[in-house]
Amino acid sequence: MDSVTRTSRDSDVVGALPLESWPQLEEFVHRVLGDVLPRKDQRSAAVDYVRGLMAFGRRKTMRAMAHSVGTDPRRFQHLLRTSRWDDQLARARLAERALSSRAPEVVVIRTFSTPRAGARLAGTAPRYAPDLGRDVRCQTAIFAYAVGVSWASPLSWRLLPDTGGSDRKSVLDAVGALVRELAVEIERWRFSSVSAVPLLLEDELPIHHRPDHWPTHSRLHWIAKAATDQGRILIGPTAVPENVRWSEPGMGPMSAYFHRVSPTSGENGGGGFLLQVPSSAGSTSAWEFDLPDADTTAVVGLVKTGAMVHREHTWLRGQLGLDAYEGRSRRGWNRHCTLVATARRFQTEIGGAAGF
Questions:
Q1: Which 3 state secondary structure label does DSSP give 284?
Q2: Which of 126, 147, 214, 293 is deepest in the core (most CB within 10 A)?
Q3: What is the pTM of this model?
Q4: C-alpha closest to that of 108 among 17, 246, 255, 222
């Protein structure tokens, strides 16, 4: 049976993508990734894979997705592992499309760690997970998101290498190197003005990996998470905090007290250090930044905008199976993430009109 034969059985299974929307998805994949997937069989497999990702009520394994769209899972295995296509170019095409529709306020780069039981899955090892705060066998990746007040869109990503130490220092060194790699990739994009958008780095990196130690020719401005102890030393016990208000989608108006310290020398011109006063629960956070002419409210607004990344990433995990790839191949993992991003971009652009 042809893999794209449309049957009544398929329409019952693929609840997230109605039958009438299939031609739109095929046209979307051809328009956005046509030069990346030049052969008809590649595009057909990619369309079926995206359909499987958008299926309701199923695990996003290759076998389950293949069953949901009525095809052979070996087509998906070939597409992810051995078929010749440039997934890095595909990511750039998707990023270009996302950034052409609306301008982000900030680009957020942060680590996500997923506990995984399989010893041979791509990028898994017993290691310290920065966002979990403990040692666990997990798959750790760094994602870059373009973020606005009420939206977020994945731009690029890196999977931590399998080699190297599993202790906290080794993992944070690896994270720092990949964060810089993502920042360089974004800065070199010529299809948008995203290089003028500040970076928000949500991982506390080792000193030698922080943006103020990056090459001086970098044009990027940034906000980076810092150690709270450093903030307390800089600010001192007698400083008076400033009450800052902001809004978060779904949360309404919010406020908190922040200390801001301006640089005492020529370093970090236009930047400074921001420390949130501990809440009643005792939580706090500190940020170092290099944003010329930015007042405290603007800096806090950008920091809090980064919360959209967690919501979007949770959606990609829960609804589109971002963390469901169970193969050993790093290439397969990258291609799976690329097709998840394709599904999300299709939902964002055409989903409302298609009725899902």
A1: coil
A2: 147
A3: 0.86
A4: 222
